[in-house]
Design a protein that fits this description.
The complex is a heterodimer.
Chain A lengths: L1 E4 L2 E4 L7 H7 L8 E4 L2 E2 L15 E9 L2
Chain B lengths: L1 E3 L2 E3 L3 E3 L7 H11 L3 E8 L20 E4 L7 H12 L6 E4 L12 H13 L3 E6 L3 H10 L5 E2 L13 H10 L5 E3 L5 H9 L4 E4 L1 H4 L4 H21 L21
Parallel strand pairs in B: 3-4, 3-10, 4-5, 6-7, 7-8, 9-10
Antiparallel strand pairs in B: 1-2
The chains are: A mainly beta, B alpha/beta.
Pfam families (chain A): ThiS
InterPro entries (chain A): Beta-grasp_dom_sf, Mopterin_synth/thiamin_S_b, Thi_S, ThiS/MoaD-like
Protein name (chain A): Sulfur carrier protein ThiS
Chain lengths: ~70, ~260
């Protein structure tokens, strides 16, 4: 499927079905990240149950230094 | 003791985590500051370089309370979204509401700050709005139920210190929640002055991270804030126009 991930058009491999698959693919499972799919913010417990679909807009954010 | 909502802190210094020369210096500076609250920003991750180290990973997260900011937000809707993203991490429920209304001065948008604060309080956040030194705005935010007020001393990162001590003291006088002076602190003297005015705490970043020796400056700020607070509690003497001798005038054996 094709998605927009952090503003970039990407073709995801077929094994990526759930949000947690996406995190595993990008080696983010151990990182502190927050995912938003089509404007909906997911809690961590939802990652394994949230299906991704073609044309989804996915945002992966994290904490960076700031004041 | 600094109490913000349900949280209590020994330290009155809240430290920003931006712009340090490297993680090692940053870690030492955080330790020297003895801060218990660290601020962070929320940003898109570069997923293609996910292995890039992140300062948060280098911290004992149980030791610190995270205070994410909504920096980057230009309006209340964006600020609320950033706050919710931060909270979804499961690591924090406090938020510094920061809605910038002017790119040149980085001064906050009071109207959008007020709207975002109201919404985030409804959503159950512990809300610390960053504002200019406007007394009426501070009162309105307080009436909404914000958990601390964060008036700026001067523009973000300017290091100009407290440009309007009178306004700041008005805000402090009428406050029923802690007042944390945020932004513009340049030197330990500025921090001590804010504390002597009666502020409950200081949030600073650039004054430490961009100092020639950030580790030493972190310690200097800690000591200045402690000294300023003690001075405030001790009660300074009134200023007089003319001298008053410190030594007795009687019993002089000479002359």
């Amino acid at each position: 499927m094709e998605v927009i991930l952090n503003g970039e058009n990407l073709k995801l491999s077929e094994e990526i079905v759930y949000v947690s698959d996406l995190l595993e693919y990008y080696k983010l499972l151990d990182k502190v990240v927050v995912i938003e799919v089509n404007g909906e913010i997911l809690n961590k417990v939802d990652h394994q149950e949230t299906l991704l679909s073609d044309r989804d807009r996915i945002e992966i954010v994290h904490f960076v230094g700031g004041g | 003791m600094l109490k913000i909502g349900p949280y209590s802190f020994q330290s009155r210094l809240l430290l920003g985590t931006g712009k340090y020369p490297n993680f090692d210096i940053q870690k030492q500076a955080v330790a020297e500051s003895e801060s218990e609250v660290l601020t962070f920003a929320v940003r898109r991750m570069n997923i293609f370089e996910a292995n890039q180290p992140n300062f948060l990973e280098k911290l004992d997260s149980k030791k610190y309370t995270l205070l994410p900011n909504t920096a980057g937000a230009k309006n209340a809707v964006e600020a609320v979204r950033i706050a919710k993203l931060a909270k979804a991490s499961g690591l924090c429920d406090m938020v510094k509401v920061e809605v910038i209304g002017c790119d040149k001065t980085l001064l906050p948008d009071p109207v959008e700050t007020l709207i975002a604060t109201e919404e985030l309080i409804k959503e159950g956040f512990i809300v610390l709005p960053y504002t200019s030194d406007d007394v009426v705005l501070a009162r309105k935010l307080q009436e909404l139920g914000c958990h601390a007020l964060m008036p700026g001393a001067s523009p973000i990162g300017s290091g100009r210190g407290i440009i309007n001590p009178l306004n700041l003291s008005f805000i402090i006088e009428q406050a029923t929640v802690p007042v944390i002076v945020d932004a513009g602190i340049g030197s330990p003297a500025d921090a001590a002055m804010a504390m002597e005015l009666g502020a409950d705490g200081i949030l600073l970043n650039t004054a430490v991270s961009a100092a020639k020796d950030p580790v030493k400056m972190a310690k200097a700020m800690k000591l200045a804030i402690e000294a300023g607070r003690l001075g405030f509690e001790a009660g300074r003497i009134p200023k007089k126009r003319y001298a008053t001798a410190s030594s007795p005038l009687e019993g002089m054996s000479i002359g």
